[in-house]
Amino acid sequence: MTAKHGTIRSRLWRDGVLEEDNFPFERISDCLEQDGSLVWVDILDPDGARLQDLAQELALDPLVVEDAFAREGRAKATRYPTYTFLTTYATMSEAEAETRSTSAEAGAREIDDQGSAAPSSGAEVDEPALATTRISAFILPRGMVTIRHSSAFDMNDVVRRWDENSDLLKFGVGALVYGLLDLIVDGHFDAIQAVDDRIEALEDSLFDERALDGEVQRRTYRIRRNLVELRRVVLPMREVVNSVLRHRRDLNAPTDLDSWFDDLYDHVLRATEQTESLRDTVTTIFETNLSLQDARLNVVMKKLTSWAAIIAVPTAVTGYFGQNVPYPGFAQEWGFVLSCVVIAGIAAALYVGFRRRGWL
Predict the structure, then answer these.
(1) How far is residue 326's CA from residue 23's CA, in Å, rounded to a whole number?
(2) Most buried in the list 19, 89, 266, 332, measured by CB within 10 Å?
């Protein structure tokens, strides 16, 4: 099923087996109270009234609902007496986000024209901008409610992840949380790898004499901007997963999923370390580019100085012989030839000397 803005999708499992798909919104609280049930509800781009209905249906704190309605906020996992509120960010390129959103809207409206889903031709090719989309979730004892503000993050991928690991659903809501966070972290790794590939291409262009310094600086700036955005969503994931683990232990949740969450936490640490490593690499590239510019400037100055010294020789000789006094060969043809030989000889000697020193 392709989601569209304002739609609600739901699923009900009983003892780990799918029992019902897309049940009415009004039955959420009833399903959550049933023994052996596992409930998931997804709300895409909700309005204030829909979230207020959700707050009344699940007895949620109005301030938390207001936080879920906001499109921006810090990634976190906050525990409340009867639930945990989790918010995090998925990552992708802007072109990919635009394609997914356009495809979702086209599918919902039954539009067959695939050209509307194509990315903008004005997008950057070398360093495309990084896009993020916020996903919030209310984690309840027997279910989870996810809230998305954009269809750029496709919940169908999460559902497929749950179906592929359907044997975990019998362990409760932890399986839903794990599947969601695992897919988000995988997306972080994809974004990190994409930035890493562009950094490698930038490193290759550093020592390319044909590369323009201004272009290298612009590419470096765009990569640094993407890394800033990437760090903003990747680094807080460590505390998010930690909070979820603490909440599970406080609630004495089944330990069957502990190894899966430990593996997830390890992935989060790796993503954090790689992001910090890329940040250091970009800083090094920026400093190296400045050093190379200084080195190239020194080479240019040495060449200019060398040629200035060579040009100074004929200037000095001709100036000297241009004095209005007799000199050897004055007013004689051989005197002119002698001056030319002196100019050419000294200039050639200077050129050979500078050439041997690598100044020319």
Answers:
(1) 114
(2) 89
CA dist 351 and 360 (Å) reads 8
Instruction: Count CA atoms closer than 13 A to 226's CA, side-chain side.
Output: 28
Q: What is the pTM of this model?
A: 0.74
Listing DSSP states for 269-315 in one string gives HHHHHHHHHHHHHHHHHHHHHHHHHHHHHHHHHHHHHHHHHHHHHHH
Q: Residue 123: left if φ>0, alpha if ψ -120 to 50, beta else—which one?
A: beta
End-to-end CA distance of the chain: 69
Task: List alpha helices for 70-212, DSSP H.
Answer: 94-108, 155-164, 173-206
Strand partners of residue 133: 90
Residue 181's pLDDT is 95
- So what's the pLDDT on residue 114? 39
What pLDDT was estimated at residue 269? Answer: 94
- Answer yes or no: are the C-beta atoms of 71 and 148 closer than 8 Å: no
pLDDT of residue 336: 78
Question: Which residues does the chain have with pLDDT short of 50?
Answer: 1-5, 106-125
Name the H helices within 207-257: 213-234, 237-250
Sequence-ordered strand ranges (E) for 26-104: 37-44, 76-79, 84-93
What dihedral do alpha carbons 263, 268, 271, 273 form, nearest 10°?
Answer: -100
**Is the sign of the CA dihedral 275, 279, 281, 285 positive or negative?**
positive
Instruction: Give CA–CA dist 1/246, Å, rounded.
Output: 35
Which are the contacts of 219, defined by CB distance < 8 A and separation ≥ 6?
126, 127, 198, 202, 205
